[in-house]
Specification:
Layout (H helix, E strand, L loop, with lengths): L2 H7 L9 H15 L3 E12 L5 E6 L4 E6 L1 H4 L11 E11 L4 E11 L2 H17 L17 E6 L4 H13 L4 E6 L7 H15 L4 E6 L13 H8 L5 E5 L7 H5 L2 E2 L3 H8 L3 H36 L3 H44 L4 H38 L2 H6 L4 E3 L17 E5 L4 E5 L5
Parallel strand pairs: 3-5, 6-7, 6-8, 8-9, 9-10
Antiparallel strand pairs: 1-2, 1-4, 2-3, 4-5, 11-12, 12-13
Helix pairs in contact: 5-9, 6-7
Length: 449
């Protein structure tokens, strides 16, 4: 057997696929085998393209993998990674088909260690929420015009300067009490809670601001302390939390009566501007004067009216007597007028009815004559019909077969009921039926002559 013959006799080979089809199949296999997974590593070769996509390598001591984070996902990241940053990425394992490179598509990115902190934050938040610490019914309204504002923060914090500046600008008359405490570092959470408890125990301020500037989640972690949350919830006066920036959320924010985006915003929420107070008071004075003047004018007009209506008793009696007479006359006229009008209308309708009433005496005479003629005609026809019916009944009686039978005749029929009219129809030793005037008989024939 030569080579060509061996090729023709060999079994059919598997189909041949292209490189593109192979890479697509491998990509689908990787995506099915590795769902979205958190991966930790160090950033290297970071590049941000003009399109907004991020390209970098994620590596550790023993391996590396190419990574891409597309613009739609990268715009939601809260930081831009730099060379050497330790990060954790939530990524989908896939294959870049055109080059056949194995890579990961990053959906989310965070700094290394933030994941465990965030999980601890979520667990504590769920625990305190289940305990009712964040329930809206616990929230208290801020006082409209506080006289004293308490501040819980570090004396060296830039947030304190921002709060004091905002309070001095908006309400310089408001007194400020500082309850100093570290806002970062070891045991900072316990000291923050102690400062809040001190402010609550003294009760020397109308509203309390707990604040610090922005920072990473590690910097703000002291405000995610359970003791701080309970201290805020149990504080005697309303608490405003101004921790971090707009995108930062801490447990203190949820436990407070009001959350402010920044420390400056907390100061603005705590007090009403002095200019607004003065403007409101001036507007109230104007409104009060206007209302008093209007009230006095109304009272004077009412008094004038009463004075004009004030009469001596005899004049009042005469006035009421004239009024009563006028009412009596009006009532009499009101009773007579409808009756007169109804009488005139009745007379008018009676005249119209008489004018349109038809003359029916002649029609009655004609109708009586027609009825008489109809009765005569009907009686005549009935008599004629009765006589004709009697004649027909007599004729019918003459033709009645029963009368013939009564004169001695009989009707002979065979077994099938056929009438026998001639002797030839009779057969010896046969049976016939004989009908008489009164009943019938079955007769056997002996012979026929």
């Amino acid at each position: 057997m030569n080579f060509d013959e061996r090729i023709e006799s060999a079994p059919a080979a598997a189909p041949v696929i292209t490189v593109s089809a192979l890479n697509q199949a491998v990509s689908r296999l990787l995506e099915r085998s590795f769902p979205l997974t958190w991966i930790s590593g160090e950033v290297s070769n970071f590049t941000r393209a003009a399109s907004g996509h991020w390209y970098f390598t994620l590596k550790d001591d023993g391996a590396q993998v190419r990574a891409v984070m597309f613009r739609g996902r990268a715009q939601y990241a809260n930081f831009v990674p730099r060379e050497g940053d330790k990060v954790e990425v939530r990524a989908l394992v896939t294959l870049y088909g055109p080059r056949g490179d194995y890579q990961i598509n990053v959906e989310a990115i965070r700094r290394a260690g933030v994941g465990s902190l965030f999980e601890a934050f979520q667990r504590l938040k769920e625990k305190l929420d289940a305990a009712g610490l964040f329930h809206p019914d616990r929230k208290r309204a801020l006082p409209m015009f506080p006289r004293t504002v308490g501040i819980v923060t570090s004396p060296q914090a830039a947030a304190l300067r921002d709060v004091l500046t905002a309070l001095k600008r908006r309400a310089p008359h408001v007194q400020v009490v500082l309850y100093p405490t570290p806002v970062q570092g070891q045991l900072a959470g316990e000291k923050i809670a102690a400062a809040i408890d001190t402010a609550s125990l003294r009760g020397e301020c109308d509203v309390l601001i707990v604040c610090r500037g922005g920072g990473s989640i590690e910097d703000l972690w002291s405000f995610n302390d359970e003791e701080v949350a309970y201290a805020v919830a149990n504080c005697r006066m309303p608490v405003i939390s101004g921790v971090g920036h707009e995108t930062d959320f801490t447990i203190c924010d949820f436990a407070a009566d009001l959350r402010a985006a920044t420390p400056t915003a907390a100061a603005e929420l705590a007090v009403t501007p002095r200019a607004d107070w003065i403007g409101s008071l001036k507007a109230d004075v104007v409104d009060l004067r206007r209302a008093m003047r209007r009230k006095l004018n109304d009272s004077e007009q009412t008094l004038d009216g009463y004075s004009r209506r004030l009469l001596n008793p005899s004049a009042q009696i005469d006035q009421q007597r004239h009024k009563l007479r006028a009412l009596a006359a009006a009532m009499t006229h009101a009773n007579r007028a409808p009756l007169t009008q109804a009488r005139h209308q009745l007379d008018r309708l009676s005249g119209r009815l008489s004018a349109r009433k038809p003359e029916v005496s002649g029609a009655r005479s004609v109708l009586a004559s027609l009825q008489h003629r109809a009765a005569i005609s009907i009686n005549t026809q009935l008599s004629q019909r009765r006589d004709a019916l009697a004649a027909l009944a007599s004729q019918l009686e003459l033709l009645n077969p029963q009368r013939t039978l009564e004169r001695g005749y009989a009707i002979v029929t065979d077994e099938a009921g056929t009438v026998m009219r001639t002797p030839s129809q009779l057969k010896p030793r046969s049976t016939v039926n004989v009908r008489l005037a009164e009943g019938s008989a079955r007769v056997g024939i002996d012979s026929v002559s």
